[in-house]
Amino acid sequence: MSGVGDSAARGARGGRAWARDLSGAIALVEGAIAQRVFSAVDGIELPDRNAFGEPVLLERGADVVDLVRRCALAAEQGERVALVARAPDLARARSELASIAARRLGFVVHALAQPARGGALPSMAGLAPALSLDDLLWGMLLGAGVSDAVDLALVARRAAEDSGCPFFVVHEGSHAHDVEPISAPSRELCDAFIGRAEARARRANLPADVAGGGVRDRAFAERVPFALASAMRELESLTGRRHDVIERVPASDAAVALVGAGALGDSLLADVDRLRAAGHDVVGVRVVAWRPFPAPRLVKALGRALAVTVLERVDQPLASGAPLAVQLKAAFADALTWAPDYPGVGRIPRIVSGIVAPDREVASTDLDAIVHNLLADERGKRAFVLGGEEAHALGTGAEATSASWVEKVAAQPSGTSAAASTPPMTSPVGTFVMRGIAGRREVAAAAAELCAAVLASALGLRTRVAVRELSDDEGGGVAFDLVASRERPRGTHAPHAVNLVALGDSAFLTRGNALARLAAAGVVAVPSERRAAEALWAEVPPWVKALAFDRAARVVGWSPAAVSAERDEAGTWVAAAAFVGIALAAAASDKALGAAAGRDGPVLDGGVVHREVAEALRFGVALSPGQAELLADRGASVARAVFEAIVEIPRATIEREDDGVRLGRRSRP
After folding, report:
1. Are residues 182 and 275 in the same domain?
2. How many angstroms separate the first and last alpha carbons of the chain?
3. Are residues 234 and 276 in the same domain?
4. Tens digit of pLDDT for each residue in 485-524?
5. Between 20 and 30 A from 168 (CA), which of 158, 361, 443, 657?
6. Alpha carbons 352 and 383: distance in angstroms, whole number
7. What residues are paired with 257 via a beta bridge?
8. Distance set, CA 310 to CA 127, 175, 258, 351 (Å)
9. What's the pLDDT tens digit per position in 164-187?
10. CATH (domain of 266)
């Protein structure tokens, strides 16, 4: 959650999108469609009435078994109910959950799957406790991010009420604090897609023998895939947002495939374009529906691949393999033996099982290493663990990393530019990627939420941002990594390359390489009181000068004079507003964003910046009217001042300092 308050509890008024986390997304969607919500977690704040004007009752409790029983009673009485609980706690209510399925009570349970922290057992963290319930007659959808959570909650609700089969929506959290700007589903969408509870009563959708439990489980389960597919198709027709039981990027076949589920699968899809740009014939597949499991669809999607890596976080060392890998191998075995409904195949691709350690955040270099392992044919490992013992680890894939490119560039003569050396890392076409680094987590979290909301509103982009602690090698501090694009950004892992690195304190440049992920022709924004380009350049450390030369980067200075030194909530949001000014200044000169919109660049000026930041602060920060107006004016003024007072060092100044470049290469962190 944000360091300046719960994002689920802020921004409850109006229809403007605000950056929310998974708890906030669940609160928005269930607050719009449910009548009673039972919660065993904190951070769920609901409106008084849903989108249909019906009262919404929130009931909290620590005993998940009791909450499940109360959910079942309310569902039997015809109420539209939902339960929010942690995945490990739901395992204690196994018998009650089985009883709900036997009684054909179609409602939704949101299972929060948090990553392992503080020495937690791997079997009690992540997807492991949720997948331990997959033998129950429940549907199970695996979400990947905040906006995905809203749509899957709607899909699960529709499928559950149409089929009489209850559904889990598993929300897999990441090691970073992940937020996206979203708004509550509209009344029109809820009315067209879900309808009022009495209009779509569960038993009205089921034949009498099915509703009464007279049909055997397997015959009853045959209804569920059709209900799920119908719900996904109708949501796409109403919103334009496409969902399926599996997602594949690109749609064409490839020799090498990467397969994952949930948030990890989303990270695989996020890096497919980068891997293909590097010359690898690779496709990414993400499994969305765990139950019913789309086995025939997976075989069809992967049947022409020569080698497949299945990457997952759930490890079962004493089993024949990890859960998704086992399911995929079984699906290919059925297809090879001509089982009904399966496409015919003449061979099974080489399937490699990869495990990500519970405390490990997957990185783009890991995906490079995975692809190289697949391309090694039988010399590659058939099973590996990222972040585990050295005997089970993969190589780093260093030949594909930015670090190796820096080393090659450093070996060039000082008059050689980046364009003449090995092609550097770049961000995806039409995507703006920013890393802001702050000294306090509260400022980074506030800046993340405010930047995501303002860039989405001012530029019409879809944004996603993750807040994470940086290692000492990267200069320390707390970073927020923001991705803005015309399409929904994917993945919560640290970006491979960023267009803008905005530093809240120039001291980060003395502690490590804070610019390790800077893309070619990227922007470095440093705080400085200097208003002349030559004076600013004199303050830049030599190694930064060398990096700016090698990567054809722009170096700009922003004035921290207007930023308050106060450490209270108001001071935190004012400091966050400065990052918004930097982000909008960089985005306004980003030609890729302009090309995606069909113009030279985003149309921004100081007035637009002031208006957008002020409106976002009024909406997103829960203060009294007088305090909110004061904060909105202060924050908007700071953002505008930073936007209008950016000082850029001319490229000619950077390129003529040969001695400084040579010195900087030797002192580079």
Report:
1. no
2. 32
3. no
4. 989 999 989 999 999 999 999 999 999 999 999 999 999 9
5. 361
6. 6
7. 283, 308
8. 15, 21, 6, 7
9. 999 999 999 988 999 999 999 999
10. 3.40.50.920
